[in-house]
Amino acid sequence: MRPVLIYGAYGRTGRLIVEQAARLPGWRLILAGRDPGRLAELARPLGLETRAFTLDRPEAVRDGLREVGVVVNAAGPYAATAERLAKSAIRVGAHYADLCGEEAAWRQVKALDRLAAESRVALVCGAAVTPGLSALLLASLVARQVLPRFLGEVRIVLSRPDGLGSGSLRTLWESSLDRVLVVRQGVERTVPVGRHEHLIDFGATRPGPRIAMAAGLVDTLAVADTLAAAAIRADGICSFVEAGSGSRWLADAAAWAAPLRTLPTSRPMAALAASLLDATPVEPLVVALQVEDPWRAPLVDQRFTVPEPYSASAAIAVAAARLLAQAQPESVYGWKGIGTLLRGQSELATSMDSLEPISR
Ligand SMILES: NC(=O)c1ccc[n+]([C@@H]2O[C@H](COP(=O)([O-])OP(=O)(O)OC[C@H]3O[C@@H](n4cnc5c(N)ncnc54)[C@H](OP(=O)(O)O)[C@@H]3O)[C@@H](O)[C@H]2O)c1
Predict the structure, then answer these.
(1) Of residues 282, 359, 302, 285, the one with CA closest to residue 156
(2) Which atom of ligand 1 is closest in space to residue 10's alpha carbon?
(3) pTM score, whole prediction
(4) Tell me: the pLDDT tens digits for 243-261?
(5) Closest protein CA for atom 14 of ligand 1
(6) Measured from the CB, is residue 171 less than 6 Å from ligand 1?
(7) Which listed residue, of 72, 76, 169, 322, carries a Cα 20 to 30 Å from 204's Cα?
């Protein structure tokens, strides 16, 4: 297996990735990040190698990635890390995977597709619960050939994400608060936050009809990728997040707050507020995938309950890293959708003790 470097190893998700990967036989793991003290503390009991480097000097990053086969980037917000680390990975010939849920950073990495393909390197964004789960569900439907060539709406709906960690909250703050991406007839558009809602029943875990609001999840882009690769056309693709009855008020507040993010003091204040919330326990998450036929009749309506989303994200990142570390090279060069990479890994769903499929 090719050596795997985990950057951002001592973050909340990074630690879970290290913990899960260290349990597997045959891995050569290298822990990396910018704080040598925290790296040493994490690596010592596991007997693992560490490399401390920041991402602002490309030569230092390239040196940090020497002899590495796969880079797993667990350091977010990804606006500050994804493109830099992906470019350096390409330069040293290492595959790159991250847990990116940010639209702008996702596009920056995707734009490196040709460079990566020419350098015989794979790029995988979003090896995490969002968009990993919806992408995995959709890719397995495509593989089983249960979808016709033309579809109505495809919706990805998440239950309310209670108990997010500080990293995810800082990432949310960096993301678009006032507009939401949708794909209509294959064309990307944006709609104002709070003007597009969907009523959903999440099943036994969260019964009853609940309001979900259109949200800027990269699941929309991942689903569009998977459908395009299979030459399937959908009338619309949109992601939603459960927002409760105060959703319109929240949407208006988010749109109002959007310009505040340009103030120099806004980022440290958001980081401080996020860190105060870090101790909140994470609630189970329900991910729903709904697919309509061209006449708008329900074709697929699936739910996954994920009791611990951070562990599940780590499991998806570890599965992606394992595939890349063992991959037959030609099968993975260039931009690779997370669903396409993990398709056929049905054991991922069952082996993740936290994943419980509910189909209807
Ligand atoms: N899509 C999903 O489903 C999903 C799931 C889980 C996590 N995530 C994403 O993964 C990222 C990490 O989440 P987390 O909860 O683990 O956050 P966290 O606990 O705050 O950890 C963030 C890590 O990133 C490092 N980091 C941040 N900015 C950096 C920079 N500019 N240069 C180098 N290192 C940097 C931090 O190191 P320092 O302490 O040295 O700053 C830390 O190790 C977030 O963006 C989050 O949204 C996504």
Answers:
(1) 302
(2) 43
(3) 0.89
(4) 865 555 555 556 656 665 5
(5) 167
(6) yes
(7) 169
